[in-house]
Amino acid sequence: MRNLLISLVCATAFTTSYAQQYTTAIGIRGDWSNLDVAYADFNLKHFINGTSNAFETTLGFGRRHVWVQGMYIRNYPITGGFEWYWGAGGDLGYWSQNYAYRADGKESAGIWTGFDANIGIEYTFPEFPVNVSFDAGPTLRMYPYVEVGPLVGFSIRYAFRQK
């Protein structure tokens, strides 16, 4: 009896995933951070096999830098098209202050890497395939120096619906 109960609990726990309202969404993202992260980004979110697990990739450009971010995202339904989510991942970027087309040097250009986390809310409109999200969380710069700051973002994406 105990083995049956354990099997039933495990089966229920591992099959509680639900079908997402969309499989892939692509759009734009606006970011704010005090660590010189991009201001306007291209954003892609893709769910894995109809589960609540997703990967989100962001490619951003700023006045003096370019960066890419990869995040693992976990969504949870709230009600009526609203979902909340959390995620964690990393980023890699290149910055330059080379305005006069001088040769890049250690003082005027370089790369950075870091870790990111977020928690947010998103809404997918039932009438048309648009998804909007708002999230915030910390970003930890690891190279070339250690620094912590906030990362706040707002995304508008076209959602490709499941069939």
Task: Describe this protein with a few key phrases.
163 residues, mainly beta, Porin, 8-stranded antiparallel β-barrel, 1 helix, 8 strands, elongated
CATH architecture: Beta Barrel
End-to-end separation = 41 Å
Look at the structure and give the mean pLDDT.
82
Number of helices: 1
DSSP summary, beta strand count: 8
Q: Reading side by side through the largest sheet, how are the strands ordered?
A: 1-2-3-4-5-6-7-8
CATH class reads: Mainly Beta
The CATH topology is given as: Porin
Oligomer: single chain
What is the succession of H and E elements? HEEEEEEEE
Write a concise synopsis of the structure shown.
The protein is 8% helix and 64% strand. It is mainly beta and 163 residues long.
Show the helix and strand layout:
Blueprint (H helix, E strand, L loop, with lengths): L1 H13 L7 E12 L6 E8 L5 E9 L3 E15 L2 E15 L12 E16 L5 E14 L3 E15 L2
Antiparallel strand pairs: 1-2, 1-8, 2-3, 3-4, 4-5, 5-6, 6-7, 7-8
Explain what you see:
The termini are far apart. It is built from 1 helix and 8 strands. The longest helix is centred in the N-terminal third of the chain and has 13 residues, at 2-14. The chain has one helix at residues 2-14, and strands spanning 22-33, 40-47, 53-61, 65-79, 82-96, 109-124, 130-143, 147-161. It has one domain (17-161): Porin, CATH 2.40.160. Residues 8-19 have low confidence and may be disordered. An 8-stranded antiparallel barrel has the order 1-2-3-4-5-6-7-8. By secondary structure, it is mainly beta.
